[in-house]
Write a structure and sequence with these properties.
The chain has two helices and no strands. It has about 45 residues and is an all-alpha fold.
Length: about 45
């Protein structure tokens, strides 16, 4: 494999890993609860 093939392979792998990390980060249950909490606070009656 020449230099161009290695650079495409490394770049593609980096993109896939970054994309997977973003998906895992934003769809963790702990984060989801933190993001959804203000919505439920806003809808909660204060009376």
């Amino acid at each position: 494999m020449d230099w161009n093939a290695w650079s495409y392979l490394i770049f593609g792998t980096t993109l896939v890993v970054t994309f997977l990390w973003i998906i895992v980060h934003f769809y963790r249950p702990k984060r989801k609860n933190k993001v959804e909490e203000p919505k439920y606070k806003m809808l909660d009656d204060e009376d």
